[in-house]
Design brief:
The complex is a heterodimer of chains A (about 270) and B (about 230). Chain A is α/β, with parallel strands linked by helices and about 270 residues long. Chain A contains nine helices and twelve strands. In chain A, the strands form three sheets. In chain A, strands 8-9-10-3-11-12 form a six-stranded mixed β-sheet, sandwiched between helices. In chain A, strand 9, helix 6 and strand 10 form a beta-alpha-beta unit. The longest helix of chain A is centred in the last third of the chain and has 16 residues. In chain B, helix 5 crosses helix 6 and helix 6 crosses helix 8. The N and C termini of chain B lie far apart (about 55 Å). The relative contact order of chain B is 0.15. Classes of the chains: A alpha/beta (about 270), B mainly alpha (about 230). At the A-B interface, helix 2, strand 8, helix 3 and helix 5 of A face helix 7 and helix 8 of B.
Chain lengths: ~270, ~230
């Protein structure tokens, strides 16, 4: 496989760049050379069968998984590694990785709210511990963000007393409060009952409309088609189909993509 | 037979010496609190090392926990009081000795840090990986995640198990009389030398231990219950 070359990142260039990304677990190569650019304000959706590497790809973008090779750039700055003057690449310091992660919001399939903290505390925790804001200021931002996801009235509830949809909206607020440059959604609605997915998708739709740059892994094909600027179909760790939602959903050129869509759209 | 039975149930002799015995009980409490704090501090470090990402730390801490969990407290106490000073004296070529109290605290503290480190390890491992990843994704350092996310939750989960470890530790303080710490058992054997009536004296001691432990663990349960339940419905 030849390495794909992308044009250099300029100030007006893509906010997020993934360049020839590879990831192996042992001898199992999960990602086999993935490259794409995400322009500011765009929504990129990644679809594909389970095991195609979607989640691993997303987790590499904020270095929750360490890529085997390849590079991630956020606003032109490498994520998770540094390039030395002589051109060799080394793993970045933990503090630098954390600094970059703080600019990348992530929403998980399992919400991952902290059960010993109220909704508001979940949202303010990183503002206080990472950004160093005073409690009062953090709570002000926290309340504003909870209001954005329509949960201001649940600010003082513990996660166990919230529905799945409410928990996921708190998790979105927790990521949003940090004012990230990019938001990653890892199957954000997959563990929700069907009647609860709507409220979460609505929040995501609203974010997209407001110009948030988003990378979304999802099984919600309707949402992908409606909200995305670009859709990537992943197959066995490679980009198999790539284009606008119209290209991918209405005129897929890849046989595998056609089959996949036929199976999920029924 | 009825006479001996009455003797064992008649605890008036025990009551007669209540001040001496209370002073002994105080010694047990001193040893318990000091050894408990030592054990808790050590257990936290050992328990964390056992789930560390560094292999060397994991191996060393597992060895420590296995060694002290599987050595009887009694043997440890004798070793620390009689053998350790000889070893240190030889190594440093100076005279070195431990007071009975220090030896008791050291031996029991180390022994129970082995047990408690297992509780700490299990508590930390019970926290879902996703809670840590959520913290990482927000830019938190591993230390912040440990301090703010993992430990507060782990402590709540560890509490019932830790409580039973502390009950065992308090019971184990009854062996410190063997190195002449003037605890309950020491005071009672002194009184017994004088009075020659072991039945009421040792029965009273058994009942006193039981009473103290039941009263303490019940009140801790009541006090901690609401705190542990908060947000976990």
């Amino acid at each position: 496989m030849t390495a794909q070359t992308l044009p250099p990142v300029s100030a007006s260039g893509p906010i997020l760049r993934c360049s020839n990304l590879r990831k192996s677990f042992g001898t199992n190569e999960v990602l086999r050379g993935i490259s794409f650019d995400v322009p500011t304000g765009a929504v990129l959706t990644i679809i594909g069968a389970s095991g195609s590497g979607k989640s691993t790809l997303l987790r590499c973008l904020n270095h929750l998984e360490q890529p085997t090779s390849g590079e991630i750039y956020l606003e032109g700055e490498p994520v998770g590694m540094r390039v030395r003057a002589n051109g060799t690449r080394v793993a970045d310091k933990a503090a630098n990785i954390a600094r970059m992660r703080a600019k990348i919001g992530m929403v998980f399939q399992q919400f991952n709210l902290w059960p010993h903290m109220t909704a508001l505390q979940n949202v303010t925790e990183a503002l206080i511990q990472v950004k160093g804001l005073a409690r009062a200021k953090a709570q002000e931002i926290g309340r504003d963000t909870l209001a954005k996801v329509n949960l201001l009235n649940k600010a003082d509830e513990y996660p166990a007393r919230l529905s799945g949809g409410q928990q996921q909206r708190v998790a979105i607020a927790r990521a949003l409060a940090m004012a990230p440059k990019v938001m990653l959604f890892d199957e954000a609605t997959s563990s929700l009952d069907p009647e609860l997915t709507g409220e979460v998708l609505e929040v995501m739709r609203q974010l997209a409309k407001e110009g948030m740059t988003m990378v979304v892994v999802t099984h919600e094909m309707g949402f992908a088609r409606e909200v995305s600027d670009r859709v990537i179909f992943l197959h066995e760790g490679q980009i198999d189909q790539d284009g606008t939602p119209e290209d991918v959903f209405a005129r897929p050129t890849s046989e595998r993509c056609r089959k996949f869509l036929a199976s999920v759209l029924g | 037979m009825p006479e001996t039975l009455r003797q064992s149930l008649d605890l008036s002799l025990f009551w007669e010496f209540r001040y001496t015995i209370a002073i002994g009980l105080l010694q047990n409490l001193y040893v318990f609190v000091s050894a408990g704090l030592l054990a808790l501090t050590l257990a936290l470090f050992i328990g964390l090392s056992r789930v560390s990402r560094h292999r060397i730390l994991r191996i060393l801490s597992t060895g420590y926990a296995e060694l002290f969990r599987n050595t009887p407290e009694f043997v440890l106490l004798i070793w620390v009081y009689y053998v350790l000073p000889i070893l240190v004296s030889k190594l440093l070529a100076t005279r070195f000795s431990l007071s009975p109290f220090l030896a008791a605290v050291l031996a029991l503290g180390v022994a129970y840090s082995g047990f408690l480190s297992e509780t700490v390890r299990a508590g930390i491992q019970s926290i879902p990986r996703g809670h840590v990843e959520a913290g990482l994704s927000l830019g938190m350092s591993r230390f912040t995640i440990l301090r703010r996310i993992v430990i507060p939750q782990a402590v709540r989960r560890m509490l019932p198990e830790a409580l039973s470890q502390f009950v065992s530790l308090f019971k184990a303080t009854s062996i410190v009389s063997l190195v002449a710490v003037p605890d309950i058992m020491y005071q009672i054997s002194m009184i017994n030398v004088d009075q020659m009536r072991p039945l009421p004296l040792y029965t009273g001691a058994a009942l006193l231990f039981c009473l103290v432990i039941v009263a303490a663990s019940q009140s801790i349960n009541i006090l901690s219950d609401r705190w542990r339940r908060r947000g976990w419905a």
